[in-house]
Each structure stands twice: as C-alpha cells, then as structure tokens.
Amino acid sequence: MIEPIDIEALQPIYRQLDELVGSKNMVKIFEYYRGVQVILPLHLYNREAAKQQIVKRYDGTNQAELTRLYGYSERWTRVILRNMKH
C-alpha cells in the first residue's frame, strides 16, 4: 500500500473512492484498475441472471418485491412472469 495517502492531492475519482471504501480499498482499486477506463452498468444485476432468479423466486405474490430487489422496471418483470406461464 502507498503510504501515507495525501487525500488533498488525490484525483477527484480516487478521493470519492477513498470516502466510499476507505484508503486501503481505494489503493487496491487503483492498483487493479490503474489506467483502465471503467464504465459501470446501470443495473447491478445481469439481465439474464435476474430473469432466471425472478422466475425461480416468484411465488405468485412477490412481483413488486422482486422488481425492487433486481432493480428492473415493473413492466419488464411483468413481461418475464407472463412469458413464464407460456
């Protein structure tokens, strides 16, 4: 680990990461992704994997809960469940 960390001299993104995950983890992220442009997906969960989990976990009453859990739209979840019946 780079010691000591001068928070005031950090690039803005690393300063934000330092606030979010702490200096130790920020340095790990820096060392692992150094020089790589990272674009984070809008959704935390993979669409196909979420689809499979929604079908698997649906009990007939928990559509809204699954929609919130996986972060996709209610309409998308409804279509998945409708297609499941066919």
UniProtKB/TrEMBL annotation:
Coiled-coil parts of chain: none
UniProt xrefs under InterPro entries: Homeodomain-like_sf, Mor_transcription_activator
Domain Mor transcription activator residues, every copy: 13-85
Pfam families to which the protein is assigned, alphabetical: Mor
The protein's name: Mor transcription activator domain-containing protein
Species of the source: Lactiplantibacillus paraplantarum
